[in-house]
Design a protein that fits this description.
Blueprint: H1 3-27, H2 30-37, H3 49-63, H4 72-85, E1 91-99, E2 102-111, E3 114-117, E4 125-131, E5 134-137
Antiparallel strand pairs: 1-2, 1-4, 2-3, 4-5
């Protein structure tokens, strides 16, 4: 497939997945959404760096579009779905932080030790992660 056609295909898929994830976050109970994110991986590819880069690029590009109104959670869910479709094991991580006295939340995707989607994770304390068939929750630490 030519690069231009590949870009269009990934952007179309990313916009559809972000839209579906946004609807799911709004209408489904959180337990159901995170149960889906926590399903075990059916098949795994070990070396899929190109596909992982394309997914990350397309999600970041489409998340920036104002007409999609994508939150970090819907972007992370969309990326998680796209990576799972390609057999790439990923983790959906949730974190919290204080911002001028208010508690803020953030969602991001990790593959191995690398953050793929939702890069500003340094100031957030991880409270949960989903993926690989198990949920890991850490202690909530609020300063």
């Amino acid at each position: 497939m030519k690069p231009a056609a590949m870009r269009r295909a990934y952007l179309r898929e990313a916009s559809l997945m972000i839209a579906l994830a946004s609807v799911a976050v709004r209408i489904l109970p959180a337990a159901q959404v995170f149960a889906w994110a926590n399903r075990s991986q059916q098949h795994r590819k070990r070396f899929a760096v190109d596909e992982m880069d394309w997914v990350a690029w397309s999600i970041e590009k489409m998340s920036a579009k104002p007409w999609l109104n994508a939150s970090c959670l819907s972007s992370a869910l969309a990326a998680h779905a796209m990576l799972r479709r390609r057999g790439i094991a990923s983790r959906l991580c949730l974190g919290v932080a204080r911002d001028e006295g208010a508690l803020v939340a953030h969602a991001w995707i990790e593959v191995g030790q690398d953050v793929i989607v939702g890069a500003e994770t340094g100031r957030f304390t991880r409270i949960a992660q989903f993926g690989g068939g198990r949920t890991i929750r850490g202690p909530i630490q609020v300063d």
